[in-house]
From TrEMBL:
Organismal lineage: Bacteria, Candidatus Berkelbacteria
Biological processes per GO annotation: intracellular manganese ion homeostasis
Main location: membrane
Keyword Hydrolase: no
Subcellular location: Endomembrane system
Any GO molecular function: manganese ion transmembrane transporter activity
Family annotation (InterPro entries): Ccc1_fam
Gene Ontology cellular-component terms listed: endomembrane system
Designated name of the protein: VIT family protein
Name of one Pfam family that matches: VIT1
Keyword vocabulary terms for this entry: Membrane, Transmembrane, Transmembrane helix
Amino acid sequence: MTNTLKYKNKSISQGIAFGTMDGVVNVLGIIAGLSLAGVDSRTIILGAIAAGFANAIANSSGFYVSEESILADKEVNIIKATIVAFLSSLVSALILSIPILLFLPLTGLLASVVLGLTILFILGIVFSSSKTSRTKLGIRYVIIGLFATVAGLLIGVLID
């Protein structure tokens, strides 16, 4: 973890990383799939936000259970970190939905993908444990985002 995000509570920074990564990857796949399935922008936004909320609840509850099993004596910190994971995931979904509101579906998709991959790259740099691996971790996170996007695109093509 870089000096930029050193918290007294390591779980908070883990919640940010976990929530943001999961939110971006999830919504990239959903936006990609719905965009190629030929649905309108309103449906894409509805799908992204509904999935974003469901994903935020699912990932933050999973995060809570995981942290609780490790740090059972620090309940207040775990709850704070869980809320941060929820908010990070939800905000990621909302941010990636903005281009769909502003542009036609295909242009919005491209803008969301660029925005999402940029967020993932920055996330990798910020949460890297050493200076030499910052770029590598950012690239790994981008590759994960690309896998989700391609999976969503393939599903969208199959459905359409």
